[in-house]
Amino acid sequence: xxxxxxxxxxxxxxxxxxxxxxxxxxxxxxxxxxxxxxxxxxxxxxxxxxxxxxxxxxxxxxxxxxxxxxxxxxxxxxxxxxxxxxxxxxxxxxxxxxxxxxxxxxxxxxxxxxxxxxxxxxxxxxxxxxxxxxxxxxxxxxxxxxxxxxxxxxxxxxxxxxxxxxxxxxxxxxxxxxxxxxxxxxxxxxxxxxxxxxxxxxxxxxxxxxxxxxxxxxxxxxxxxxxxxxxxxxxxxxxxxxxxxxxxxxxxxxxxxxxxxxxxxxxxxxxxxxxxxxxxxxxxxxxxxxxxxxxxxxxxxxxxxxxxxxxxxxxxxxxxxxxxxxxxxxxxxxxxxxxxxxxxxxxxxxxxxxxxxxxxxx
Length: 362
Fold this sequence. Notes:
It is a single chain. The longest helix is centred in the N-terminal third of the chain and has 31 residues, at 2-32. A 5-stranded parallel beta sheet has the order 2-3-4-1-5. Helices cover 52% and strands 8% of the residues. The protein has helices at 2-32, 47-66, 69-75, 84-98, 103-118, 138-149, 164-167, 174-191, 214-217, 241-253, 264-275, 286-289, 304-317, 324-333, 352-359, and strands spanning 126-131, 159-163, 196-200, 232-237, 295-298, 336-337, 344-345. The chain has 15 helices and 7 strands. It is an alpha/beta fold.
């Protein structure tokens, strides 16, 4: 055991030493660049030749640096930028701090993403389908997942976001969209196996279009030499929100806590509801029929107390002291349903940001 530890320490010392030498060489080469105009004695090396020599030294140093992945990824974004364990920690922390009233989401998303990233022998890509009313946190959670894996989040070149009404607007072009979508996914996974694809407004997508990506979500080891097993696909949809509300309302009317709602009570009913919804991009989809969606994640409608939590966090994030009177006023201005009970916000927390602009002089 002692010999093994000594060998590990020696390898670590050599790596750090090599990286340090590469950095010193690079600094030395770069330091010479401003002196180029002065290094011109008659009959000596031509300036361009000297420049090339110095550039060669710099390139050699860079080659040494690039051989050390952590150093390279410090300067340039890398595929799967954070270590797998760090992804889970960042994801859990952000969901705990910023997502309210979604106990099911917090549990299933963290476990699903963590388990998938730790699985070195995954049989297929991870596919999550997030369902619920507008403003309940679907886009917010997909953003947090992206930020957990890549420092640049949604701005990362390895994260790809599609909006149905923007990227696939015309029903008569569906065959063209299918070809383009397949090419885009194939090309990007070839560059980065851990690519993340987010499909927003699935309830507005033309039926049949999403089935074009079925081969990429299936249990194939390779397709034309490319493996898709490390990729992540996230689908966002309002479809199924009625079924989710029905279950949540039933719990409330029977005096049961929403936190007692179990994922098993939602999953099957939600998948069937979405599959049979003609106004959904998942209508009779082979992705559901072939069980290629790993988790249907229900986002419960938000109550008055959750809206107040959203307002408080938004005020604090802007660096302002929370005014309880304004906080309550904003929550009271939201509209709630059902009309008689007024339990759930019909826009969730979606308009909180705009309302704050009205009350605070930013």
